[in-house]
Amino acid sequence: MEYMFKFCNLPDDTLTVKMVNEAAGRLHCKLKEIDLESLDISDYNKRYFGSLLRNLCSNLQKYAYILAWSITKIDIPLNKLVFLDYGGGSGMLSLLAKECKIGTVIYNDIYDVSARDAELIGKAIGDQADYYIPGDINDVIDFLKEKSIKCNAIANYDVIEHIYDIEEFLKKIPMISDNNLRVFFSSGANPYNPVIKRKLVKNHYRCELSDREQKFGSKKRDPLEAYSKIRRKLIKDLNPNLSEDQVDYLVTATKGLIEYDIKKAVNEFSTRGTVTLKQKYPQYPSNTCDPYTGNWAEHLMDIYQLRNVLQSQNFQADIWRGYYGDSNTLIKCLAARSLNILIKNLGRHGLVLSPFFTLCGNVAP
């Protein structure tokens, strides 16, 4: 099983695992032949998708793991199954789903440039998804309602740590289907892995306090100014009569808030002298987000609270440990496989070593 993590927990549905592994092998061959420079896609995806291609085997192992667990033992024929790649980004998960001959594959991303590029890449290799939906969860719900489509599985990687109000998002998930729904949301923002946490906290402070330079392939949706500087401008525009000390206080108090919530906080402070609207998960004070879009800088969250929210929506939900894919060097491969053995055998404590976690669940009967 070349395209499955080594020494990890896999479904006991061996036919599905074999089918996904073989599809990943075919997709690998197609993607090795793709010429991104010849495609009319953005510089952002020439850089980002290109980076995925440079370590293609490891990335396919990750997406094969996610897909295999997303579709295993669903009591629906594969050619009738509806799979939603929410926040699909590069579209690699959608490509793999189409290569598996899943009946209906739906790609979504809030960034319209990514949605357009993913469609072009899909066309180029003959694995185009059935639908491409730019927008957020509300746009997806509206589209599915209009088309009378009910999803059976929804999955993603490195998405939930960017959603502004993740708990509200999870409460809306049941609206994409009324039965037989499985969710599998994997995220590299693992707060239990100290190495990852230290790296992400450093990135939080960089986004919060430092301006960034325009680089080739940067996402045009992302601002170059420090988030604190953006909030300062917004606050001063909302109430020019504030003193510098008051502005300083509000810049700190509104950290992790989107523009419309910043407006609420400034209005409350202007009338009552207090700010009660605060970001969630105070145990991770470095968290910060883009004030314009609410896009979090790798949000560190209480992942078991996320599980509780999903359970409150009639899901049987849990947190799973993630594993390491093979690398391009023998030493790194051996290290990854050794870590995978530890992660698998340590149970819940394996999250301390895991490169990602997964919030997974099925609609409770």
Write the layout of secondary structure elements.
Layout: H1 14-32, H2 43-54, H3 56-71, E1 82-85, H4 92-99, E2 104-109, H5 112-125, E3 131-134, H6 137-147, E4 153-157, H7 166-172, E5 182-187, H8 194-209, H9 227-238, H10 244-253, H11 259-272, H12 303-312, E6 315-321, H13 330-345, E7 357-363
Parallel strand pairs: 1-2, 1-4, 2-3, 4-5
Antiparallel strand pairs: 5-7, 6-7
Per DSSP E runs of 2 or more residues, the count of β-strands stands at 7
CATH homologous superfamily title of the largest domain: Vaccinia Virus protein VP39
Shape: globular
How many angstroms separate the termini? 33 Å
Q: What profile does the largest beta sheet have?
A: 7 strands, mixed
Estimate the helix proportion, in percent: 40-55%
* Strand order in the largest sheet: 3-2-1-4-5-7-6
Residue runs with pLDDT of under 50 for 5 or more positions: none
Radius of gyration, taken over Cα atoms and rounded to an integer in Å? 21 Å
What structural class results from the helix and strand content? alpha/beta
Give the CATH architecture of the largest domain. Answer: 3-Layer(aba) Sandwich
CATH class assignment of the largest domain = Alpha Beta
Residue share in β-strands: 5-15%
Q: Which sequence of SSEs, written as H and E, runs from N to C?
A: HHHEHEHEHEHEHHHHHEHE
CATH T-level fold name of the largest domain? Rossmann fold
Domain count: the total is 2
Average pLDDT, rounded to a whole number, is 96
- How many helical stretches? 13
